[in-house]
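ARCHIVE CARD
Drawer: 12
Card no.: 0347
Subject: one protein chain, sequence and derived structure
Cross-reference: see card 0346
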Amino acid sequence: MTGRLLPRRLLLGELACLGILYPTPTHGFAIAARLKTSGDVGRVWSLSRALTYRCLDELTVRGFIQPVGEEPGIAGGNRTILAATRTGRVHLRKWVATPVVHLRDLRSELLLKLIIAETCEIDVTSMLELQRTHIAQVADAITNQIKSEPGDVVALWRSEFLNASLRFLDRLPSTMAS
């Protein structure tokens, strides 16, 4: 019996690259600049230039982006202009619309979704409502756990983290939600 491998999910770095390409075509060097720790996207999810190009290669192979032209580079040679494909754009919108499930991913994945949604002008109102509901349910369960096990420091930390996350969602600017 031969088994089929399911296609793997895109990594956050690949989604960051796709999100940068979603609104307008550009070249890898410009994407890498935005993913540096000092970049607008890099302050949430940063990648080295080498990893950025690896992500772009993978997105191209998987059909999420494609070359659409060239322009002269500053130091010689041409830069390939890349654009998100229809498949890539649909995939990115689905990812942005899906709440983050795991607590450990809230800081990185949720913030990346919010930055990408803002850059791409994607409405995240429904996702944020679902995200808040999910976090509130987990927070209630952990509060009950703390009541039955008051000395559980991990549960206490999770509770504080979740409550801070709920406050963050409540304080998001109204412009982010629409």
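Annotation on reverse: The helical segments are 12-21, 28-35, 49-61, 86-97, 106-120, 125-148, 153-171. Strands lie at 26-27, 65-72, 78-84.
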